[in-house]
Write a structure and sequence with these properties.
- Helix content is 54%, strand content 18%.
- The chain is of the alpha+beta class.
- It has a domain at 120-199: Roll (Pdz3 Domain), CATH 2.30.42.
- A 4-stranded antiparallel sheet has the order 5-4-6-7, covered by helices on one side. Strands 1-2 form a two-stranded antiparallel sheet. The chain has a two-stranded antiparallel ribbon with strand order 3-10.
- Helix 1 (2-27) packs across helix 7 (267-294).
- The radius of gyration is 24 Å and the shape is globular.
- The two termini are 24 Å apart.
Length: 352
């Protein structure tokens, strides 16, 4: 049962991504030859009109194959014969739909678990925050000049930049007074560097307006978390064991499901919290897929968007054969990276 739920999560994310390409292509009268969810041998397929639809064995990835996508064609409905603007929209639609999915799921999640505003519920006496004049009820506006809208953003910032490092906070009093303080974390009895504040936690999102607003903040949080994580990976700020692929993430999801089952008193309660956890994973993974596909790497959507941007500026189309060669090289490099991550996943999941 767990593996079905995990496959469903990955399937939803991939489907929405490919559906973005598909629907925008169809709206612009581009012939879509194949629409596939999964890779490898087909386990189910059917045809409708000009398009063949496939469900494939391996729940990793998918594709939307358009006429004239990788070669020149004389057909007026070929991808290659559409304007730069239309082609840009079609390619960008995949990542954009991932962000739309993450936003919609965030709205559902916030409706059930509530909002997490950046208000302070408690300031520990004699802590660095207390000594700096911070009071319960204050709202955090900025951390080191970076705006935040939820308390988790402060936690994310400290995790990425180090819990020991001093920070500058801009806060707002309940009466509207805005002030700044410089806080140096102190080592507590648990051996952890803290500044001595506690947020309100999740509170009810009152009204559709707040629900929409905090769904946007949730999307913003995961975009920031993903971008920060990528920067840390590039700069060598993370260990190899901290980098996970589909198998590693599936393993973590399985652990979460089992933990929920153990801690829930009834099957109905377990089902509810499993669904909420799956929604959270869908948001995280959908944002990750959207951002990863926007990276300017050949064979990814971002690489193709870069080629289209160059064409739009120079008004010269890059020859299809040369673009295909570059994309093949990029695809091979992506495959190598996938195998490295896969090996790392197998090592961590089965041999650690």
């Amino acid at each position: 049962m767990n593996i079905i739920l995990i496959i469903l999560v990955f399937g939803i994310i991939v489907f929405f991504h490919e559906f973005g390409h598909f629907i925008v292509a169809k709206l612009n009268k581009i012939t879509v030859s194949e629409f596939s969810i999964g890779m490898g041998p087909a386990i189910f397929s059917f045809g409708k009109g000009e398009t063949k639809y496939f469900l494939r064995l391996l729940p990793l990835g998918g594709y939307c194959l358009m006429l004239g996508e990788d070669e020149d064609s004389d057909d007026e409905n070929a991808f290659s014969n559409k304007s730069v603007f239309v082609r840009f929209l079609v390619i960008a639609a995949g990542p954009v739909f991932n962000f739309i999915l993450a936003f919609l799921f965030s709205m559902i999640l916030k409706n059930y678990i509530g909002c997490d505003p950046a208000y302070l519920d408690e300031v520990v006496p004699n802590s660095p925050a207390y000594e700096a004049g911070i009071e319960a009820g204050d709202k955090i506006l900025e951390v080191d000049g970076s705006k935040i809208y939820t308390y988790r953003e402060l936690t994310l910032y400290r995790e990425v930049n180090g819990h020991k490092n001093p920070i500058t906070l801009k806060l707002e009093r309940p009466d509207g007074e805005i002030y700044e303080v410089y806080v140096t974390p102190a080592l507590d009895s648990d051996g952890v560097y803290r500044i001595g504040i506690q947020g309100t936690g999740y509170v009810e999102c009152k009204g559709i307006g707040n629900n929409i607003k905090f769904a946007g903040y949730e999307l913003r949080y995961w975009v920031k978390a993903t971008v920060m994580s990528l920067k840390m990976i590039v700069s060598g700020g993370v260990e190899s064991d901290d980098v996970m692929g589909p198998i590693g993430m599936g393993g973590v999801m399985n652990d979460v499901i089992e933990e929920v089952k153990e801690e829930s008193e009834t099957k109905a309660e377990a089902a509810k919290y499993i669904v909420l956890n799956m929604l959270n994973w869908c948001i995280l993974l959908s944002v990750n897929l959207g951002i990863m596909n926007l990276l300017p790497i050949p064979a990814l959507d971002g690489g193709r968007l870069l080629f289209l941007a160059i064409e739009g500026v120079t008004r010269k189309k890059i020859p299809a054969d040369k673009e295909a060669i570059i994309n093949i090289i990029g695809f091979v490099l992506v495959l190598i990276l996938m195998f490295v991550v896969l090996f790392n996943d197998i090592k961590n999941v089965f041999f650690s």
